[in-house]
Amino acid sequence: MPESFGVALLGAGRMGMEHARTMLGLAEARVLAVADPNTRAAEAAGGLLQAEAVYADPEEAIAHPGVEAVVIVTPTDTHARYIELAARAGKAIFCEKPVAKDLGETRRVLEAVEQRGVPFQIGFQRRYDPPYRQARDKIEAGEVGEVEQFIAVMRDPAPAPLEYLAGSGGIFIDQSIHDIDCARFLVGEVEEVHAWGAVRVDPRIGEIGDVDTTNLSLRFAGGALGVIQNSRRAVYGYDVRTEVFGSRGKLVMDATPKTPLWQYGGGVSADHYHFFMDRFKEAYRLELEAFFRSLSKGERPTPGGRDALESLRVAIAATRSLKEGRAVRLEEVG
Amino acid sequence: MPESFGVALLGAGRMGMEHARTMLGLAEARVLAVADPNTRAAEAAGGLLQAEAVYADPEEAIAHPGVEAVVIVTPTDTHARYIELAARAGKAIFCEKPVAKDLGETRRVLEAVEQRGVPFQIGFQRRYDPPYRQARDKIEAGEVGEVEQFIAVMRDPAPAPLEYLAGSGGIFIDQSIHDIDCARFLVGEVEEVHAWGAVRVDPRIGEIGDVDTTNLSLRFAGGALGVIQNSRRAVYGYDVRTEVFGSRGKLVMDATPKTPLWQYGGGVSADHYHFFMDRFKEAYRLELEAFFRSLSKGERPTPGGRDALESLRVAIAATRSLKEGRAVRLEEVG
Amino acid sequence: MPESFGVALLGAGRMGMEHARTMLGLAEARVLAVADPNTRAAEAAGGLLQAEAVYADPEEAIAHPGVEAVVIVTPTDTHARYIELAARAGKAIFCEKPVAKDLGETRRVLEAVEQRGVPFQIGFQRRYDPPYRQARDKIEAGEVGEVEQFIAVMRDPAPAPLEYLAGSGGIFIDQSIHDIDCARFLVGEVEEVHAWGAVRVDPRIGEIGDVDTTNLSLRFAGGALGVIQNSRRAVYGYDVRTEVFGSRGKLVMDATPKTPLWQYGGGVSADHYHFFMDRFKEAYRLELEAFFRSLSKGERPTPGGRDALESLRVAIAATRSLKEGRAVRLEEVG
Amino acid sequence: MPESFGVALLGAGRMGMEHARTMLGLAEARVLAVADPNTRAAEAAGGLLQAEAVYADPEEAIAHPGVEAVVIVTPTDTHARYIELAARAGKAIFCEKPVAKDLGETRRVLEAVEQRGVPFQIGFQRRYDPPYRQARDKIEAGEVGEVEQFIAVMRDPAPAPLEYLAGSGGIFIDQSIHDIDCARFLVGEVEEVHAWGAVRVDPRIGEIGDVDTTNLSLRFAGGALGVIQNSRRAVYGYDVRTEVFGSRGKLVMDATPKTPLWQYGGGVSADHYHFFMDRFKEAYRLELEAFFRSLSKGERPTPGGRDALESLRVAIAATRSLKEGRAVRLEEVG
């Protein structure tokens, strides 16, 4: 029987409930406390998890007796605060991305984590998605040789609400960062970026100073070239495809269709993923499982603070490139 | 918070552990007792599930206070006995297929279930596999029109041990029955069968009076023709593909590859499922979830006793056809 | 510059025009004469090919000066007559399948061919289709090991006109024979068959004593089991898929979709082949090219008379099995 | 019988022979003269085509009596000269891309074509490849809505010889131009480009001042963003994939595998195209067929001079962007 850890779940929204269901099936996680200002949501999660206590305020959940680890699924702009609180309280931390939208706060918070030496994992779930994980293994085993090119496409089914977008830090920091982290995971560090953006989906996105359609060129430290293309809308559903090309071959990660059922009748057709939580359901489960396994084994969970920080730096460079209309080297980003 | 049911898990082998993990994540199931003559296995499952008690004897687990439902994953030839005991004790029953290998015992046991009116579900998991379930919905919605042809192929990666095969009732009753049930699920009742078999994989399978390679023709009551082709060995892994063809189109269920990662280098390649539990992992979870949801809602779980019985009758007809070298009508089978 | 042969093209219908276009691009073939009772069709082909003469009567075309080879694409029931005439005149012969619908006439005609020693090729074009040809090479190279199972599915987009079907010899001799020949090509000789048929597409097909939906079980001399499933109608187009399974792996020949263009929007979709001449366009070209290459090199073209005869014997056995409701051994067929 | 045109084939290398075989099967084309300084090659083609005359000097072939159209497949740096000669002689012209590597010469030559009003088609064959052609039709029919993003990947199996590359005008003008023309064909005119390049394949390519690995960002006049990624080497063969994404859906053109034969054994695998002439074999035939059909009908063939010019302007802008390290607007290019 594996060791189990007392957990506080902070946030009981859609993703919080997903993590709740995962933890329900994980012998290593005993959720003792759930917190959400939406008390009905908190109680639903608490009931499902048979938690000892349900709070409106995440701070109280962190302080609940027996809590050894926190799973932070609160709104983005509260992440930094709860990471810091949890770190100071000596808890192990799993937090959805991002730590924070700006570099200064991200650095400050991650230093608090470092100082206390608490285990910390950031929710770049794609690193745990089986095709991506296998791709990484194959790349490390040399099966594609020297990496020369990288392509990532990711499109959301529909834009998030405008008020969310307005506070999101912009598309590179909010959306592209997943592909940026994936690029770093599969190819390595980025040295220079060049970004273009357009408003093609919704003019109101332009009015809040953001774009909804992007082209991001990457020059990797190892010499490879890459491109990330994102959109805030794809009418056919959630679209994610990644390609790593090298001197010995190519790897393509593309999970189309969703259901292995083909219908013949006026051609051939199949369905498509409609939502990222659907596409990465297994990855969300595996990342949390990995977090608790790391705690059990006393190993450092991954991806950690450095990945949170470095992927953010690339996203900030992209944002700057878009605004200044020029290529930006990563060394320019604080 | 959903109603939850006290459960006795009978059998803690590989499939028992799979069901244990599923129930760990199901709020509707509280496993109170686990039983397995292999006490280490029983204790491992009991620990994972935080069960109140662990027994060597399934009878004692059935009788454990608070148990309302039993999940039977014991060796095949004990199913009948525990179904009967659980039925007489008024418990809801989920049992791996088959009820029994012969018709008389199957009938007797299912009558006990009927008499007591306990909910009963047989583990034909494929009915819960998403492509198969969607195919059924599409067929019922008329999307393929009148069904005219059916093809099912299923091949195991390697034969089970000889001692298992010797007591399995033969390949039609042990293996083909999954495709038979699938045929009944998607197309309807079978009226006549014609079977051929060969020993191609292992001559010792012939020595115990069985075959390892089969061709089973089906004539459905609705007039369609079908074929089921099975083998005890496929070196590339577990192979399962089903096709339903009708006057308005065709549906194909085929989950190749396993991982959506394509490798280019001397051609294009991807991996393949290696094991049925791997291929149908989601189906095994969904069938058990459905069982408990049915209990919650007071609905009759499905597939139930009639499906267990009718699919067995087809398998018995196939066995007789193989032995007697002629087509056999279902009405000939008791 | 390759040697070129004077050719008489007998038949200028749809398939005749296909062969005409192929020969237009073949330096080895100079079509000198074209014959078709439909003189407008004959003249169209003759014009395209810049033939020296156009005839209504194929006999005259065979006798045209300089003709060394005949390509027979006339109605099925005239094949035997023109093969015999051409053979007696010492011409090399390419003939669409079948030689004849009954065994006696087929034997008689092929004996005439043998006696005169003229090169003879029968139009089982699938043997020249690239995936089938590569499959054969892989099987011969041992890449699937010992063959254990075979599955072939072929469905026409729509039934041919009733008057054609009435004179076609029945579905096994008219349609299934392509899959039968393919089975012999990929797996080897057939020892026993068991056939079932149904009328599902058009009741008038039943009224002329034929079926439109079939299940044909094959037992190969080498011990493998196979199944061929055919239908006279598939609303989504021409459907052909073949699978060879053996002790070391499996080969699947399946050319879906037709055009490598995928459309995303409410799922994923692509087109499908609509017609066998479309699907096997390349094979029709390659078989004729191979015929003339054989003539150039003085090699025996393939498939020849023996394949025409043996595949017909299997189709006749299938027809008998359907009528007599029992398995039929090939040795029973004359 | 269609009208036929007297043709001079200039160039009898690999691609010249491909066009020769196509014209052999085209009733509209009678090749009267073939020219190639390599007289053995010229004679081989002349023999195959039963041409009246074979020349070493293309000028003589243009002047051969009865020649109405020329097909120019000579080395790149001679295209301009023969286009001009043929135009002045009043011949219809089909010419492989490019007209010339610099804008001045291209303009001068195309003006000669315009002045004489001769039909002119440039060999951007991809416009005739069935998936690309269908995609264009679907885009024009509004099936993807407003185009928002474009991605094209094209990788050659191996770099051309260094001496060829040294005179090729650089990778954008020599290789990317096919994807550039495809972008213009499917999405529309380009307004601005930003290019990055790297030497990853062969350092000698860097020594001649070129790159072998590129990232080209496109901003279309209609507002869409695009990216073209090219490489001079892909060990698994010729790689070409194109994606057009819009407000109503997405189209993907990707012809993997080459042969519809799947091999199962240690996973699933299939082959891949090895060479562009192989991948676009049908397109090369269809483009030439279309050229002669246009002549027959008295229609203007397409793509014509304007497409040759505009695609070259984009490639020149890309080259400038790479050299100057900044985005370049098309209006800056002469």
TrEMBL record, chains A, B, C, D:
Keywords, in A-Z order: Oxidoreductase
Span of domain Gfo/Idh/MocA-like oxidoreductase N-terminal: 5-124
Superkingdom as given in the UniProt entry: Bacteria
GFO/IDH/MocA-like oxidoreductase domain mapped to chain residues: 132-251
Keyword Protein transport assigned: no
A Pfam short name: GFO_IDH_MocA_C3
Keyword Oxidoreductase set for record: yes
EC number: 1.1.1.370
Matches recorded under InterPro entries: Gfo/Idh/MocA-like_OxRdtase_N, GFO_IDH_MocA-like_dom, Myo_inos_IolG, NAD(P)-bd_dom_sf
Molecular function via GO: nucleotide binding; oxidoreductase activity
Family, as annotated: Belongs to the Gfo/Idh/MocA family.
PANTHER family per record: BINDING ROSSMANN FOLD OXIDOREDUCTASE, PUTATIVE (AFU_ORTHOLOGUE AFUA_2G10240)-RELATED, NAD(P)-BINDING ROSSMANN-FOLD SUPERFAMILY PROTEIN-RELATED
This protein's name: Scyllo-inositol 2-dehydrogenase (NAD(+))
Organism: Calidithermus terrae
